[in-house]
Amino acid sequence: MKEPKERTMSVSGSSLQNEYMDAFSSINERPVDDISLEFFYKPHTITLLAVSIASVIYTAFVRDERDIQENIWSGICCVVFFFLIVSVLTFPNGPFTRPHPALWRIVFGMSVLYLLALLFLLFQSYSTVYAIMYWIDPNLRNFHIDMDKEYAVNCSDITFARVWSHVDVFAWGHFLGWAFKAILFRHAGLLWAISIMWEITEIAFAHLLPNFKECWWDSLILDVLICNGLGIWCGLKICKALEMREYKWVSIRDISSTTGKIKRAILQFTPVQWTPVRWLDPTSTYMRFFALSQLVVFWQISELNTFFLKHIFEMPPSHPLVIARLCLVGVIVAPSVRYVKTYLTGMQGADQIN
What residues form the membrane-spanning segments (predicted)? Predict the structure, then answer.
């Protein structure tokens, strides 16, 4: 009577073993960058936590207790560092997988920290926020916006030297910014609509922000046609090249030559695949059009917020706080726009799309 049971147990045990081996063989056959952190990076998790704890213990012994400001900075940096470590270990994967999902988990963690910082500042007074800014950078006490400076004067005086003088670092910022927006939106009509709407927004708020006052040739020719237009054109050309490219990925371990390994390592910072997006098509519903209009409006408000912040709190455009915030918002917007595309267009497999 025992023999059938033993035979049954042995058969079930062998089947479980086969399933176990099949699961791990399927994992081994997958590309290295496609394996989730839960399966492949548990030893790295322990190592990461051990190194983090050792770093905190080390800094606790070498810090100077008499330097209060330095201790506060060290504490803030430690909190941010550990929060990002927790983000890597516990936050879900984003819509992007390159160069590694862990990087986009860090971006997710930075967005949460930015939200928490805004919520904290929301309950502070104007003078308290100023005091925090002065504590971060005491040099801001000496900076004040020149409200007497005149903009958009002698607009009828159009010379090559004067037009060329307006091609400064901000013109390059316009060009690079719109190229980045083109890679995110991938739709010429939307991009041109946002570009023209932004010039209208500048005119509407010129009485509050004096630097929004521009000559007609500066607004239409330099901004819309040259800087924004060339940025949109270059960004869409990059999208077209990535869309037409043939994607055949192999693991870096399967490449024998050193040159091939280096090339594969560099290509790790390119998308896994490129999917064209049709925001609007003949089958689109009114709700999609309404949601897309909301996206455009929020995009304009976000950009307008940048100019109001540096005007109200009197910071120069080149200040590290302004640049760091723009870079942070830029990396946060990338996966956010992808989520909006996925929701509005109903694309599947968003976790594998770049």
Answer: 72-91, 103-123, 190-210, 216-236, 285-302, 322-340
